[in-house]
Recover the amino acids of this structure.
């Protein structure tokens, strides 16, 4: 059986997120889905896997079903495949943030950077006046990144604001292009930089996964592998499964 794996998120007002946990858990269990879902007042974030028709039913419920009442009508979805179930169980957790930065001024529902499609990304990062910034943690960067990208050398995304305060200057860095795995960290990071007075902030829409899916390897500026938060460990161009490596099984996950 080929499993469908779906990474998804949306920043949206969910003041009832605590009450949504059990209905969503029951819905996922009824579809035999496994994976991890985070719910917070600011939205939803997760990666799940299951039979293709079950994943489709899940995505339809989130975007169009009565459970969320149309509040997830702009859901960011990225789907790939796996030869084996990449999750051991289903986990639904309640969090303060769906991606932890710890900056109340960084509100992606109010302002974010300029989205750049995968097809336009190469031209943007090739420009000499663009600072290309990888917002992921050091372990992920070591596995693969874009040519010329700055590694903030952080252990978790929560440290990004300290990196920005110490290393980035709105007067010097006038044009910043940032990226992450699926796009969610850049939503928070771009909101943070805009709140600090940075004028021109871009981010890769759909993240590295969308880029690897759409940009042919011959035209790619990506080097290495893209770490993913499941038992497949990493994906390559065309979202091809790289394969599980024993040394990577227990690496600390950065949400």
């Amino acid at each position: 059986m080929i499993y469908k794996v779906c990474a998804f998120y949306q920043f949206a007002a969910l003041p009832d997120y605590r009450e949504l946990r059990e209905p969503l858990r029951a819905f996922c269990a009824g579809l035999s889905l496994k994976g991890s879902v985070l719910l917070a007042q600011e939205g939803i974030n997760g990666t799940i896997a299951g039979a293709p028709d079950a994943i489709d039913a899940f995505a339809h419920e989130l975007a169009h079903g009565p459970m969320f009442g149309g509040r997830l009508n702009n859901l960011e979805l990225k789907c790939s495949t796996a030869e084996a179930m990449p999750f051991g169980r289903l986990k639904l957790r309640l969090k303060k943030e769906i991606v932890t930065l710890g900056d109340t001024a960084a509100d992606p529902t109010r302002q974010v950077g300029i989205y750049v499609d995968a097809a336009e990304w190469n031209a943007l990062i090739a420009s000499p006046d663009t600072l290309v910034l990888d917002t992921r943690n050091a372990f992920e960067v070591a596995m693969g990144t874009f040519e010329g990208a700055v590694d903030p050398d952080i252990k978790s995304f929560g440290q990004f604001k300290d990196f920005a305060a110490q290393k980035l200057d709105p007067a010097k860095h006038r044009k910043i292009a940032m990226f992450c795995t699926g796009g969610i960290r850049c939503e928070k990071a771009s909101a943070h930089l805009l709140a600090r007075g940075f004028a021109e902030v871009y981010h890769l829409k759909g993240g590295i996964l969308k880029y690897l899916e759409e940009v042919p390897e011959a035209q790619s500026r990506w080097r290495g592998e893209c770490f993913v938060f499941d038992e497949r460990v990493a994906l390559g161009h065309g979202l091809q499964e790289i394969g599980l490596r024993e040394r990577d099984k227990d690496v600390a996950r950065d949400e």
